[in-house]
Amino acid sequence: LSIPLLIAVLWMYQDKDEQQEVAQMVEIKTNPGMTTSVVLPDNTVVYLNSESSLRYPSRFVAKREVELIGEAYFDVTKDKEGVFVVSTAHQSQIEVYGTSFNVEAYAADGRISTTLVEGSVGFFFKDKRGEAKNDKVETLS
Q1: CA neighbor of 137 nearest in space, from 120, 124, 115
Q2: Nearest 5°: CA angle at 85, between 126 and 36?
Q3: Which of 69, 78, 76, 24 is nearest to 48 (CA)?
């Protein structure tokens, strides 16, 4: 009696491992003159501007990281354990600490700008010589 029970339990655990979902990348693009909004798996809301694209995983595992080309407004859900990172063109990243902000990072432009509405962000980039730089910006209360 114990052998069939042991086989059934092992089969159930093996079946659960196979059913775990693998995170797939999702890409949202907007056409010229159009805008859209997206709710990410962590409930962060992103408003994507015209001619922009956003890539993100179907579920966040450890790090909440997205890739942006173009312009978007982010209203990030606070998560003390998981930092939210926006990777942009020109090898720059914006680390977010539960905040609202706008990013303009079109690939054709030679500049990236972020406008902080509330909270704080860290801006990591490489200068013209390829040296890593960073700045932290926060709103005053």
Answers
A1: 120
A2: 110
A3: 69
